[in-house]
Amino acid sequence: MNILVTGAAGFIGFHTAKRLLLDNNRVIGLDNVNNYYDTRLKYSRIKILKKNNNFKFYKIDLKEKTKVLSLFKKEKFDYVIHLAAQAGVRYSIINPYVYVDSNLVGFINILEGCRNNKVKHLVYASSSSVYGANTKMPFSVHHNVDHPVSLYAATKKANELMAHTYSTLYKLPTTGLRFFTVYGPWGRPDMALFKFTESILKGKTIEVYNYGNMERDFTYIDDIVEGIVRVMNKVPKPNKRWRGDKPDCSTSFAPYKIYNIGNNNPVKLTKFIEVIEKCLGVKANKKFLPIQPGDVPKTFADVDDLIKDVGFKPATSIEVGIKNFVDWYKKYYKV
Question: Which residues of the chain have pLDDT under 70?
Answer without folding.
Answer: none
